[in-house]
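agent> Task received from the user: take the single chain below, predict its 3D structure, and emit structure tokens. No templates, no multimer pairing.
agent> Plan: (1) validate residues, (2) run structure prediction, (3) serialize to tokens, (4) report one or two observations.
agent> Step 1 OK, no nonstandard residues flagged.
tool_call: predict_structure(input=
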Amino acid sequence: MTKTEIPLTGYAHETSKVLGNCGCLLVSGTMDKVNAMTIGWGLIGMLWGKPVFMVAVRPSRHTFKLIEETEEFTVNVPRKGMEDIMEYCGTVSGKDENKIEKKGLVVEEGKMVNTPILPDCVVNYECKVIFKTKISEDQVSEDAKERWYPEGNFHTIYFGEILCTTADENAATEMPLE
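)
tool_result: status=success, residues=178
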């Protein structure tokens, strides 16, 4: 697929819908050591006058280690028909298996970051971490602790400045919005 550079927050609304529907693929690492993880939590917005993609990653995840090492990540919006890949990347750990190899995912160098993008996805956001914060147990409601953190393992929230966004020509019709 041919990718075209688009406005940095292009497809922000549609990406939010996909996140809530089937998730996106958060890619971390470098071309030599890359991992993909399905995420269902994320936001696109503005921080300090910069477009950002906010993602939440637990410290127990392999992705966490790779983002800490590189201070970069990409968010890749799947196309229709990638449900099996999304399920797999959301249930198998990159510590245990090379998910990229196992699922035959193609990786390509980013234009602005060293972390790869997945060109088979319809939209790719390349991000550089500009701020991170760990969710603090004492600031989380009891309901959220019971539902999302019964064993602790509180997320770190990464705010990645969106440095480049690319999309397929037909991205809007290829996204799994429903």
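agent> Step 4: summary for the user.
The CA atoms of residues 106 and 120 lie 7 Å apart.
agent> Done.
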